[in-house]
Amino acid sequence: MWDQPAAVLEPACVETKQRREILIIEDDDSQREVLSLRLRAQGFKTLQAATAMEGLQLAEERRPHLVLLDVRLPDIDGFRVCRHLDENPGTSSIPVIILSGMERPDIIRRARRAGCHYFVRKPYDPNALLCLVEQAMTERGES
Question: 18 or 49: whose pLDDT is higher?
Answer without folding.
Answer: 49
